From TrEMBL:
<comment type="pathway">
    <text>Amino-acid biosynthesis; L-methionine biosynthesis via de novo pathway; O-acetyl-L-homoserine from L-homoserine: step 1/1.</text>
</comment>
<dbReference type="GO" id="GO:0004414">
    <property type="term" value="F:homoserine O-acetyltransferase activity"/>
</dbReference>
<dbReference type="InterPro" id="IPR008220">
    <property type="entry name" value="HAT_MetX-like"/>
</dbReference>
<dbReference type="GO" id="GO:0005737">
    <property type="term" value="C:cytoplasm"/>
</dbReference>
<keyword id="KW-0028">Amino-acid biosynthesis</keyword>
<feature type="binding site">
    <location>
        <position position="357"/>
    </location>
    <ligand>
        <name>substrate</name>
    </ligand>
</feature>
<comment type="subunit">
    <text>Homodimer.</text>
</comment>
<keyword id="KW-0012">Acyltransferase</keyword>
<feature type="domain" description="AB hydrolase-1">
    <location>
        <begin position="47"/>
        <end position="209"/>
    </location>
</feature>
<keyword id="KW-0808">Transferase</keyword>
<protein>
    <recommendedName>
        <fullName>Homoserine O-acetyltransferase</fullName>
        <ecNumber>2.3.1.31</ecNumber>
    </recommendedName>
</protein>
<dbReference type="InterPro" id="IPR029058">
    <property type="entry name" value="AB_hydrolase_fold"/>
</dbReference>
<keyword id="KW-0486">Methionine biosynthesis</keyword>
<keyword id="KW-0963">Cytoplasm</keyword>
<dbReference type="GO" id="GO:0009092">
    <property type="term" value="P:homoserine metabolic process"/>
</dbReference>
<feature type="active site" description="Nucleophile">
    <location>
        <position position="151"/>
    </location>
</feature>
<dbReference type="InterPro" id="IPR000073">
    <property type="entry name" value="AB_hydrolase_1"/>
</dbReference>
Amino acid sequence: MADASPIETHAHVLTLAEPLPLDSGRALAPVEIAYQTYGRLNAAKDNAIIVCHALTGDQHLASPHPKTGKPGWWSRVVGPNRPIDTNRFFVICSNVIGSCMGSSGPSSMADDGAPFAMRFPVITIRDMVRAQVALIDHLGIDRLHGIVGGSMGGMQALSWAANFPERCGAVLVLASAPRQSAQNIAFHEVGRQAIMADPEWKGGDYYTADLDDPRKVGPEAGLAVARMAAHITYLSEQGLTQKFGRRLQDRDAKTFGFDADFQVESYLRYQGLAFTDRFDANSYLYITRAMDYFDLAEEHGGRLANAFAGLKTRMCLVSFDTDWLYPTSESRAVAHAVNAAGAPVSFVELSAPFGHDSFLLDVPALDRVIEGFL
């Protein structure tokens, strides 16, 4: 389905005219939302799709990343004649609030001229979606043709369906869950503690005068460990075994020590160090906490079906058989709840060896589901 034709891409930053109300009871101001668009909005403004990114993602959905130079994180899926076809759809992807790629977050400047750091207010998944609603209001879009998200992006898609059903067209949720499990909260806490234990964290006040790159200093070692721990949860045992097994690095296997003896060790260390070049440690603290707070049933009286009482549009849920971070049982629970609420829903478990990251990788069956559903 790929096409070499160029994608019409535009980068924007929206500054909200009013403070953004938050679940904490506070209001965030000033608020900037960095976003990318792909394709063209038609005259009726009814061909727009929002793609919601995951924890460490950003708005660079199908365009090169400005820091790494790598292709957009879903270039395989979004573009001319791809599953999300930019010849037909106007695709929007915004950096979530709390992040560090242009939207307001801990590294942003507060009214007093200093970075927010840990003064940034606590945010939730629903707060992220409120910012996206403000964005489509700015674009003059009353109702989205579709909302698509994987992992934390799937949580955002679920929050759209639950809290703004009248603005939703088709809702596609990939490899996600209606709440964080205790195990997932525990993994996040390991990462947060690694960051805060790094002496360079300094209570979150590690930013320098060079705010264009606040990660030139800071808790890079702690952030790298957090990324390594999280990255393990994105993979499957089958995938790790196929890719690395117990293979040693290309050096004398008899030289024992604490260097990266095994290929899998070297891979994880690379993932951790590369991550520190593009992500802010405080943003990692805030966004993982937002995920941990997410509990769609609790938001709606303790019953998950209540969350979808006003939903009239179609929903599709996709899980992967090797994903132990958000296993199939989570998607099935949402499907049952949507069905109990009387809304149309479909559900499929796909087979892939890549674990949780399967929604980002080459799974042709997923391409067919996305294209057919939208």
